[in-house]
Design a protein that fits this description.
By secondary structure, this protein is an alpha/beta fold. It is 43% helix and 16% strand. It contains 8 helices and 6 strands. The protein starts with 5 loop residues before the first strand and ends in a 5-residue tail after the last helix.
Length: 177
Amino acid sequence: MRAGDVVVCQLEVPQPAVRALATATRAAGARLVCNAAPAATLDADVLAALDVLVVNETEAQVVLGAVVPTPTGAAAAACRAGCAVVVTLGAEGAVYADSDGRSGHCPAPIVDAVDTVGAGNAFVGALAVALAAGVALPDAVAAGVAAGSHTVTQVGARTAPHAVAAYLPAVSSTEGS
């Protein structure tokens, strides 16, 4: 792990492992994105050690103790958590806020949804790749929303890497340089 890297974790591991990863990530100068699935209550020190917390609407209630359907709600949650918060809203896109409370909403494009399996993972993957490429949080969330929206247009949790890359112009334009 190096400075500038972005590490992604989920809550399928015990909280002490997430805490240790957060410590190691911070020591390396990398950033940690936590996709809080399956949803679990996180200790305040673990939340504050994250760079970005990603939850869906149901997970937000468990992890953040609140429904967070608006940018204002995301800003309040981010201030309480001490990290950036992104809440995915399915067909409504996502709301987000950084730890300083700057917030917004990224609407999802209208698509013919066939299967939602894998949409959250595609969202988190695209968000992390965009952040690692130096894209600001609002644009990284937009990349995640686009990738997740593309994923639901096909059966199964398969998204071709080139399809996701299409939503990451900052990454695509710097490949090979």
